[in-house]
Structure formats: structure tokens, C-alpha cells
Amino acid sequence: MATPDHESRVMGALSRPGYQPKTVKALSREFDIPPDEYPDFRRAVKRLVKAGKLVVARDKTLEKATEAAKKSSSGAIVGTFRRTAKGFGFVRPHGANDRADHIFIPEKYTSDASSGDQVAVKITRRARTPGMNHEGKILDVIERASGVFVGTYFEQDGDGFVKVDKSTFHESIYVGDPGAKGARPGDKVVLEMVRFPSPELEGEGVITEVLGPRGTPGVDTLMVLRAYNIPDEFDEDVLREAREQARAFDEANVEGRADLRDVLTVTIDPATARDFDDAITLSRDDRGYWELGVHIADVSHFVPTNSELDRVARLRGNSVYLPDRVVPMLPEVLSNSLASLQQGKTRYTVSALLEFNNEGVRTGTRFVRSAIRVDQRFSYEQAFEAMKNPDREIEGVSPPVHAMLGRMLELAMTLRKRRFARGALELNMPEVEVELGNEGEVVGAHLAQDDESHQVIEEFMLAANEAVAEFLTGRGLDFLRRGHDDPDPMKLRDFAEFARSLGYAIESPQSRFELQRVLNESADQPERHAVHFGLLRSLKRATYVAERTGHYALSSEDYCHFTSPIRRYPDLQVHRALLATLAGKRPKEHVDELVAMAEHCTRTERRAEAAEQELIKIKLLTFLGDKIGQNYHAVIIGVEDFGLFCQLIELPVEGLVHLTSLHSDYYDLERETHSLIGRRRGQRFRLGDRVEVRVWRVDVDRRELDLVLASELPEGMELPESRTGPRRPKRPGSPPPPRRTGGPPSPRKKGSRTRRS
């Protein structure tokens, strides 16, 4: 058994509003730590201090590093730093969403901070014009985002260097004698930083792993996994526990469970899925009332609290779904076998049995630990065909199963209609999915399907999640919720003004019904992209929370994640809280531990999303490297004073049309309408507009795609080549060379006030 998660509980307690600094001993008394656990508790605190997450004051009290930084530096602002390719950077203060709130940091004041670091910054010059950025200076790096980076190895003048991917560092990092770890020029390598570069000192690192030559199949995936610190292997202790659980499982033993193996049961999942979390049963009585059974894999049976399996699942937070592989939260003997609800196998589940009347009002709720046997597994495509053809015989689908699929569609559409009637929002934009070849390369793309079969499962999962959240809330319990805060009223007012400029009047921007009306009215209009992107910019991101906050987009007062415990740790925690309650016990997690768990799981979720998006971008940029000069259709998804961010319609990748490439006119930014407007001809480029662009430059290592408008390309202009190699390094110990200042912006130029982030 692993020790209790003291670190999470301590971080949760120190994150509470109104926390008063306490000593380790005082915290242990507050937590009621038994004497025999105190040494482990003290060691956990020391680990947090060593990791830079906590600081110990002179009076031996503990504080989060971010809070201590604010106190130690009068007027300091804490935020996340992002360095640009030119050396200067920006700090996004915690809680700031608008680019105008970001703080511009000239290169000489960036210290040794790298992108993603948590820093304390002091304002040195305030913006004099609305929309411009304040200027600041980094006082301290509070917490490093990472000490490990991925880049391209090369040699110069008898020394080894690594050019780190993206624009993390402006210059290459010195790694000593050539050939370390057997690296060859052009290899992608993992680098651990020994000394972070600063304007005064060169960076130095050590190669810890050679991933392989650039372009070799699978290397791009390893690059992303290492860059985002995503573990892709399990320790032997974890695998041993998983194998022990497999040996102990007896599918004939259903003692203590509701035996639902004879109830007609189906699953509907993507065709390539292997981890089946959920199964459905549905019946209707003589009154016309529905009984919906949402049966979720009972992962808690196989993953005891504080076991090694639990520790690694908590650490990972979630499974990571990449274009060419899945990195599971749990070993595959569990995620793809014992816990997965496979057709024809007896599987343990936690069942939400929900009763609805004919209008879709939930009239009854019951939860049981159960055993089921799936009668038929469907892909979404197969289920959709059966649902849309109720009177036609479908090969391989029995009449009872076919009839149940039709009933599922009927109930789901009733629930969906009712959900929108209460104010839920639906922001659906066409999504493009890439198609990969045998070696992981992009070979094409297609529109992702979002037909009724997807909506059926979505509605049933939403219903189960809400029912569980209401059940636990009604008993006054603490558990992990899924929260989505209300938008900033000012942002909604800005969106309303933008919508009016498109011809859509919004009388009350705070009304979800008004917002959904505009979404519906623009759904089949040319302004569809503009309206949807404009509203998305106004909404906050959903997070995991320990307190009751509600879910704005779903118009739900109580919501949690319950339906995917194979791939999400928050769902596993909710299962444990539910099962403890059903057994007449109180859940073990303290609210402080839940606060830290919520923050951690939100971070791992966003890490997984970022890793997936980055790998897709790498693959697409590699594909587009051979398409220099080719035209594509695109939609404008961002408008800034330095250019237009455009997403290709045929491929899910975005690039920048730089302002300097718009030769036909001089353009000014109109923030209220998210537009660039030509001074002479009045040409307008607005958020959501469709344009034709040409691929102009591709830099895979920097993750950059430069586009030009096809209409702005001068005849006979020579096309550039895509960049694949690193730039010439500086000698170790030498002063930084002068930066090239050509092209906007020029942060070293005295008096220049053009800033962006």
C-alpha cells in the first residue's frame, strides 16, 4: 500500500482563500495526522519545498511559492511567461484572459525564464493607449514549467549543441563534447537543462535520451511525449498489481451485485476504441415511462485507494489520445480488458438507473453496483444506420436490438430538446480529422461526424453525470465536480456588439436563450464562423473544482464526470464517493485534498489536449512542407494588429498571415469588430471571414506556418523553402550576439510601443 496523498492535501489547504500561514506541526494537527504517519507527512512537505511549490518563512510557517513571491516583492504580479522567437516575451497574469492584459517583457528583463514558467513580474511602464500592453521586468522565477526539453542535435566547431523545438529559447543550448549518448547530427534528443540561458549567460544542458533521426516513423510522437512529460510506460510494481487483479477476477462471481446479465445491453463507441467505459439498457413500461440504464465500468474494484495502481492513475490524471497511439491512465490488462465492457463478457459496473416520464423529466434515480454482459457492440456508424432505418432489416442486428436502438434515439432527442429548453448552449463547428498512413504520416483528412448516434450517447452520459452530482450534493458530500464559470459580463457585452455589427441583435447578452438564438440563426449563414468564434472567445474553459459552481454551457447547477473512469481520474474519485455513500459511509477525501486534486486533474487534462494538438500540428506541418505555394481555403480565427490567424478548412492547422504581407493597403485594427480595415480602400478582414490562402513558409521545429492571401501575392514572387535545420549556435560563454531588429515588432528600439501577446 502506498502512503496517503499528503502532498495533495497540503497544497489544497494552502490554496484555500483566507489561508493563514502555519507550521508543519500545526498543519498536521489540523489534519489529525496520527503520530505514526507524521514522519511521512513531514517528508511530503519537504518534497514540496524542494520542488519549489512551497516556501518556509523565517518563523517556519508554510506558504505557496506564488503567494510568498507577491509578499516579498511589493507590487509584484504573478503569471505565466511566454518567450517569443525574438527573445522578448509576455507574462499572462493569473486570471487574465484578454491579450491586452498581458505584460510585455523586453529581452533584457526576461532573466532566465523560459516559456511556461510561473514568474513574479513588476510593472516598469504603464500603457498610455488602450489596447497596448504594460511593460515589466521579471523579478523571480517561482516555478519552472519543465527542466526537460526536446530539440535537434547538431555539431559546430567541435562542440555539441541542441536547438530546442518551438521558440522556447532564442539560441541553441551547449551540450559539451560531440556524440554524447551516441547522438548524431539531425537526431531529435531529450535535453535536461543544467543552466537556463539568460541575456547574460549561455544555456547549458545534458542529453538524456536520443529519440532518433528527424522524420523517422514514431519519433514525432516520442518528441511530444517527452516535451510534455507524459509517462508512456508503467513501473513493474504497477504492472504486478494489475496482473494480480487479473488473476483474482472471476467473472462467475457476481455476489453483492445486481445481476443484470440477462438485460439487453449495447455499447456504441468509435470504431477504433478498445477501452469501453459505458453500456446502455433501455425499456419502457405501460405508463410510457422510460427506465434508462447507464452502466459504467467499475474501475474502483480493480484500483484500490492508495494502491500503486491508484498512485499512478492519479499522477497521470487521464489517458492521452494521440493521433497514432493511446497512452492509457491504467495498464492495458485493465483499461482494454478486465474493466472494458467487451461484448459477450461478464463485466463489473456501477449502474445509474434513471426513470423519465414521457416528457423527459427525471422521475426516479437509483444507483447499484452491478454485473452486465454486453449483447452487441456498435460503432457510431453502425448504430446510426440502424437508428435511421427502423423499418429496414440490418444485417447482423436482431429485431430486439434494432428496436432498442430506435427507442434510444427517441428518448435521447426528448432529453436533448428539454436540455436546450432550459438554456444549454450548443456550439458545434465542423471538425476535421486527419488520416494517417502506416508510418504515422498524414495522407488525408475528413470531416468528423456528429450525427444522432453521437448525440444519443452524449445525452445519456450527461443525464447520468447530472444525476450522480445531484445525488452526492443532496447528501452534503465533498467530491470532484466539473465546473464552468459564467462568462465575464463585459466580454458578453463585447460579443453582443460584435454580433450587432454582423446584423444579429442581442438585447440581453447574459441570456443563454438569446445567445443560442443567434447561434441558431447564423448556423446556415456566411457569418456562422464569425458568430461561433466570437462567442467562444467570450466563454471561460471548464475545469475540475471541489466546490459547487455549476456548469454555464450545460445550464446545470450540479455536474460531475462519472462516465469514463477508465480514462479519467476524476470519474474514479466520483465512483468512490458514490459507492461509499451507497455503503453507508462517508468518502475518505478531505476537501483540501480535493482542491489539489481538481487543480492537478485540470492541468493533466490540458496537458493531454496540448500534446494531441501539437502532434497533429507536427504531422500536418510535415505534410505541408511539400505543399509550398499551394492554395487552400481558410477561415479567420483571430485578428491582431500584427496579422490574421487563419485555420485551413481542408486540414485542421492554423497559420499566420502577417500584416507585412498585405501589400495592397495599410491596415488598422478595429478591436470592437475583430477586424483589420484598410485605410485607402476600406478592405475589411474580420473574424470568421473565409479567405483563400497560399502556403508560404513551413518551419516544423518552430511549429510555424506562414500564409499569404492568394489575392495579395505579387506575380512572379519567388517562393521560400521550408526550414528544417537549426540555426548557427553561439560559442559557450560568449556574449549574446546582436539581434536582428528588422520587421515588426522591434522591442529594443527606444520609444517603440507596438506590443502584442
Explain what the structure shows.
With 757 residues, the chain is of the alpha+beta class. Among the domains are: 6-67, Arc Repressor Mutant, subunit A; 73-143, Nucleic acid-binding proteins (OB fold (Dihydrolipoamide Acetyltransferase, E2P)); 236-480 and 557-611, no CATH class; 625-712, Beta Barrel (OB fold (Dihydrolipoamide Acetyltransferase, E2P)). It is built from 16 helices and 33 strands. The strands form 10 sheets. A 5-stranded mixed β-barrel has the order 3-4-5-7-6. A 5-stranded antiparallel beta sheet has the order 10-9-8-11-12, with helices on one face. Strands 13-20-19-16-15 form a 5-stranded mixed beta sheet. A hairpin with a 4-residue loop joins strand 29 (667-670) and strand 30. The protein is globular. Mean pLDDT is 88; it is low at 726-757.
List the helices and strands and how they pair.
Elements: H1 6-15, H2 24-30, H3 38-50, E1 54-56, E2 62-64, H4 65-72, E3 77-83, E4 89-93, E5 103-105, E6 118-125, E7 134-143, E8 148-156, E9 159-164, E10 173-176, E11 187-195, E12 204-213, H5 219-227, H6 236-248, E13 258-259, E14 266-269, E15 278-284, E16 290-297, H7 308-316, E17 320-322, E18 325-327, H8 332-338, E19 346-356, E20 362-373, E21 376-379, H9 380-388, H10 399-421, E22 432-436, E23 442-447, H11 452-474, E24 481-483, H12 489-501, H13 512-522, H14 528-538, E25 543-545, H15 569-582, H16 591-624, E26 631-640, E27 643-648, E28 654-658, E29 667-670, E30 675-678, E31 684-686, E32 690-699, E33 704-709
Parallel strand pairs: 5-7, 13-20, 14-21, 28-33
Antiparallel strand pairs: 1-2, 3-4, 3-6, 4-5, 6-7, 8-9, 8-11, 9-10, 11-12, 15-16, 16-19, 17-18, 19-20, 22-23, 24-25, 26-27, 26-32, 27-28, 29-30, 30-31, 32-33
Helix pairs in contact: 1-16, 5-16, 9-10, 10-11, 12-14, 13-14
